[in-house]
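Instructor's aside before we start: the two examples that follow are unrelated to each other. I chose them only because their records fit on one page, so don't look for a connection. First example below.
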Amino acid sequence: MVRDIKKDLSQLLHGTAQVLPADALEKKLATGKPLKVKLGMDPTAPDLHLGHAVVLQKLKNFQDQGHEVIFLIGDFTASIGDPTGRSKTRPPLTSEQIAENITTYFEQVGHILDPEKVSVRYNSEWLAKLSMSDLVALASKITVAQLIERDDFSKRLAEKLPISFHELLYPIFQGYDSVALQADVELGGTDQTFNMLVGRHLQEHYGQNPQVVISMPLLEGLDGVQKMSKSLGNAIGFTDTPEDAYGKLMSVSDILMWRYYLLLLGYSQTDIDKLKVGIEKGTIHPMDLKKRMAHEIVAKFWSDVAAKRAQETFEALFQKKDLSAGQEIELPSGTENPLWIVELLKLLGAIKSSSEARRLIESGAVQIDDTVIQDFKAEINWKPDMCIKVGKHRIYRLV
């Protein structure tokens, strides 16, 4: 089947931040050959979130057009720690932590990609096999001056903050991944642009046709300021329940809502502008648009049934004020009573870590039966029908 290159290109360019070189993708598509499209992720945490969905959906666009998509797991580079966006050296992960994090990636990536049409590779396949002489030869192909042009490194040098030598190797290793895979295209967030351009540079040195670099915008988290991150507690994870995901989406600002329409739902700027005009004229209520956004996102990344159920739960809880509609949770048999508030929140599935619990509690975002809990060390005498509210839009009821 002959494909419409202009139509394919339009789909692939939608929502992108930058394509380098600008005309290279169209030239590669014009060859008519399936392209090798690489997306690398280091398993630095066990959970993926909607921020990852932005670039994963772009990979899905390539997949739907019949290209070879390669989901590269950076099991070797995760042991170094990507210095991107860091003001200090990132602690390297142990092999046990990396293995544990990898196990959950495949199921979560299946929320977006067709798992039957994905090549899964690990960069330890080639990086772990490099000899000392191989490493010296590889390092000789890029200068220190080139490396310290990177914002992360130049800022740290200016502030007289230390840079460990192994951090300088990270972009070289990521670039060599593209050489090993002979990638035609590499996808990544805007924070990965430098590393992806190193890949182009190294491919040229190894006599390969250099890859096209496609960078995707970074999705702001629930706070509307910093990029979505589990560690910052502003993320919506694929492992969240549909009800929790819907509730979190309803908490985003009216301004941030448009970014989610654009980057997660693929609305065109023209369509978004029409919706904005509707709000200005008073023919559309912002709450209705936010509910539409939350429903469509949950339907897309969970299921239609889950989205319908989540919306009904939200409407019962927050519009009809029926707290009995909160997510029912039965604590495991033998659970202590009283129970440390942090352990209770973990059993509810409301938090992933004690640090997240502390942030929520100290900000007054945890409430039990109309009482705000502000003591991180509080012991809770739990009982059936107890209502626990976490944040603005998550309510649990013990049964």
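Example two begins here.
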Amino acid sequence: MQEQTPSTQPSNARKRAQIRRRLRLRRYRYVSLSRRVWMRRAVFIAGALLVGLTAVGFAETANEAQNVYYAILKFSPWLPLVMTPVGFAVLAYITARWFPAAAGSGIPQVIAARKSSDNVHRKSLLGWQTTIAKIVMTAFALVIGASVGREGPTVQVGASVMFAVATFAGLGRQNGLVLAGAAAGIAAAFNAPIAGILFAIEELAKAFAGRINDIVIGSVVISGAVSWLILGNYDYFGEVSVRIVDTQDWFAVPICSIVGGVLGGLFSVGLITVSRKPPRFIALLRQRPIAFAAGCGFIVAVLSIATAGYASGNGYIETRASLVFGQAIPWWYGFAKFATTLLSSASGIPGGLFSPSLAVGAGIGSMVTPILTFTDPRALMLLMTVGYFAGVVQSPLTAVVIVMEMTSDKNMVIPLMATALFASGISRLISPEPLYHALARGYFASTFRIRGTPDVAPPAVSSS
């Protein structure tokens, strides 16, 4: 046998490297020309386009619904005392009876759907019936004066649209497409593409999934472009230009972190407690869910009338006036909005937390501006908005980027990041489990079957 000399060994190594390169090139060409790969790409593009169109239509519907409530208040300021509790009861009944997966914000449902290994269970959470019901009932909730937003529901709607397109195309694995649809929903709802990507990674996936990164980013780009073409390249709240100038201004950061983190944590643990682990007296009330929803609606109506409508709706107008124009909000606004948002979310009706939470943060920030006179009021409200929102969702990076993209303010990056990070940490001391993931347990296959979907078998929930 001929022995290889040192001079022939490099030559053999080069040949092996050339063979590996040819094999990789051949595999790449096969994948590029694969019919299934191009089918998935076509499904992804079509789904992202539909998510963008649906999100835009949802936004316009929600805005009109909000205007209808203000018109009702103007016509008869006392009508909400009857309309709101009756509306809450009707929504709670319809949701519990026919569309249990449409309750709340929709983000817990998306988390549960991604963790489920059963396609029937996923369909019960993201089916087209649920999507239509979510849009219609969220708009109706705004008409009757509930303190809800349409941004969280847009996450579920986006995931549902992408899931429906993938199912129609016969694609077996839809986990990445569901995540991409949810991210596209956030991007289109806020005109905040980077926030959509970060929300998918930080909140929904709780990890960076490299293999689905491309479709998440791509769906955000396509959905955001659709929204941009129809609605224009707008800033959700308008352009805000404030900055922290002096050293003393930095004292506002720990103050907003503590106040925002504590209040956000209290909201989170309060909603989790009422929804998942209610004390005895609340558990007795929740045994009659329709009456419980009506009671929540009555309190919301009283607070709405007492505050001339401030405590109802998504809070967009008040938040924009404070952040963009520096307009002072009544001192009681933040706490009134806190209460109505908690009651609306706990009642079991459809509706999201994003916009109301931002409004609560702005209201609390406006309340402390007479105390912290050394800081620009708009900067203070911006810091408190981020602090409270990060305390509620415990996703600090998402909170910072959402607020930055909504206001086009690049001057407050470091103060906002510091506030969100500390507030999120303080919130975890009060509510150890993140809000959306705690609520998602109610939509796992084994639990959701008990809550009104007897046709769904209780398969094991995957840990992926």
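The domain at 36-231 is CATH 1.10.3080.10 (Clc chloride channel).
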